[in-house]
Amino acid sequence: MAITFQQAFAGHDETLKFRSARASVLANNIANADTPHYKARDITFDSMLQSEVKCLDLAGNDDQHIDGSSTFGSDDALLYRNPSQPSLDGNTVDMQREQAEFAQNTLQFDTSFLFLDRKVSGMRKALTGGQ
Amino acid sequence: MSLNNIFAISGSAMSAQTIRLNTVASNIANVDSVASSVDETYRARKPVFAEMMEESMRERGWRDVSDDDLQSGVGVQVAGIVESDAPLQPRYEPDHPMSNEEGYVFYPNVNPVEEMADMMSASRSFQTNVEVMNSAKSMMQKMLSLGQS
């Protein structure tokens, strides 16, 4: 049985990428907490999946074939938050919410990291015979 | 790696909040800076924050700030510092050395209560961004230790 890194990591490496991308989006929200008219943004796993799906282009050999990826925009992955209460300057950053999301995202990052770390040490154990 | 962005994002926010604290300090320091004419009187200064997009980041000499095409903002910038248009406070003080012919001196339009609130908001935002930076730092340190246990 061939073991590949892709299979062994079970997508946790991709999750880490998503978590760090989300951390920077949330950090940007927190940084712009005092910016007038700034709209808070977020990415969800679903929206990331959507942008991955759009990469699966349909094969076309005729000019009249419709491009399968044309219905998705380039920044589908980045969504806007629904504000919980209006503010005078049009800013939709809810500081408490953003901080909570950031903390949760950090914990989820740590979880995926732990899985990845255990996978690596498991592979090492398999290679060295537990010595 | 997007985690590198966080340092630039939080750093830009910290520098913007520092500018805000500086203007607050300047306003409070000049709260009693009187002048004998409207034009010479100190006016309260406020920074205007604007979201920093990737293009503006590149214009300022940053390169490849993000390798994902999320079109996300990359921090905050101070677009400019504006002077308040609120009316000045003329006071009748004929004995004041700065008084004009009619005996009036002009006090700045600085509202100390507003400035104190602004100061607290700025220092809290600064702290939050420091914490965000700390979290990003520990996340990166974790990544470096992958496979060592």
TrEMBL record, chain A:
It comes from the Bacteria. Coiled coil: none annotated. It is found in: Bacterial flagellum basal body. NCBIfam families: FlgB (TIGR01396). The basal body constitutes a major portion of the flagellar organelle and consists of a number of rings mounted on a central rod. Structural component of flagellum, the bacterial motility apparatus. Part of the rod structure of flagellar basal body. This is Flagellar basal body rod protein FlgB. It comes from Marinomonas mediterranea (strain ATCC 700492 / JCM 21426 / NBRC 103028 / MMB-1).
From TrEMBL, chain B:
Residues 102-146 form the Flagellar basal-body/hook protein C-terminal domain. It is found in: Bacterial flagellum basal body. InterPro entries: Flag_bb_rod_N, Flagellar_basal_body_rod_CS, Flg_bb/hook_C_dom, FlgC. One of its GO terms (biological process) is bacterial-type flagellum-dependent swarming motility. Residues 10-32 form the Flagellar basal body rod protein N-terminal domain. It comes from the Bacteria. One of its GO terms (cellular component) is bacterial-type flagellum basal body, rod. Keywords: Bacterial flagellum, Cell projection, Cilium, Flagellum. The keyword tRNA processing does not apply. The basal body constitutes a major portion of the flagellar organelle and consists of four rings (L,P,S, and M) mounted on a central rod. The rod consists of about 26 subunits of FlgG in the distal portion, and FlgB, FlgC and FlgF are thought to build up the proximal portion of the rod with about 6 subunits each. Belongs to the flagella basal body rod proteins family. This is Flagellar basal-body rod protein FlgC.
